[in-house]
Amino acid sequence: MTRRCVRILDTPIGPLTLAGDGEALEGVHLPVGGRPAPPPGPWLCDPGAFAEAAAQLEAYFDGRRTTFDLPVRLRGTPFQEQVWHVLRSIPFGTTTTYGAVARRLGRPGAARAVGRANHANPVAIVVPCHRVIGADGSLTGYGGGLDTKAWLLAHERAVRDRHEQRRPGGPTTQAAARAGR
Question: What's the order of all strands across the beta sheet hosting 16-20?
């Protein structure tokens, strides 16, 4: 039997449950009713497990990280894995639609199937399924609840906007140049 390690990480959206085999992250489970979600199957609680994943997630929530570089093991159908691959390419602080993901996969009629694959994503936040919204711009289903999805999207937009203002040629730099500073 494969050893399953779990670590609970306190975050602004509640306690995340990090789960995996000790080598790769296999799950980032969102809180359920404000409590840590139990991972499937037998597990061993290890507060020292997933130190790098915890550090990267903490940096994400602090606004110091916009991408993840972690060993992740995703297990799903071939279609789910294709969807999750596309999700990882959605830029930080932006959104796309289920239909757009389906079109990127060459399956323009598969928006609902993309939604189901999105819902089955076992590694929330690291595989950013929260960045997928409805065709009309509305927030649609999210395993952590729509409030959590809205918080994550607002957080990413705020971090992105702060980074753009600091970048040479960003809005703040351009305004200062126009003002003769």
Answer: 25-29, 16-20, 5-9, 44-45
Prediction pTM value: 0.86
Number of structural domains the chain divides into: 2
Does 106 share its domain with 148? Answer: yes
Q: Which residues form the domain of 53?
A: 5-61
Per annotation, catalytic residue among 129, 132, 153, 159: 129
Residue 92 lies in a domain: yes
- Phi-psi map region of 95: left, alpha, beta (phi>0 left; psi -120 to 50 alpha): beta
Q: What is the pLDDT along the chain (181 residues), one digit of tens a residue?
A: 456 788 899 999 999 999 998 779 999 999 888 787 876 667 777 777 889 999 999 999 999 999 999 999 999 999 999 999 999 999 999 999 999 999 999 999 999 999 999 999 999 999 999 999 999 999 998 888 899 999 999 999 999 998 888 767 655 444 433 333 3
- Which tokens go with 140? 């649609």
C-beta separation of 141 from 115 below 8 A: yes
Question: 45 catalytic, yes or no?
Answer: no
**Among candidate residues 71, 17, 69, 73, the one with its CA nearest the CA of residue 44:** 17
Cα–Cα distance, 180 to 119 (Å, whole number): 50
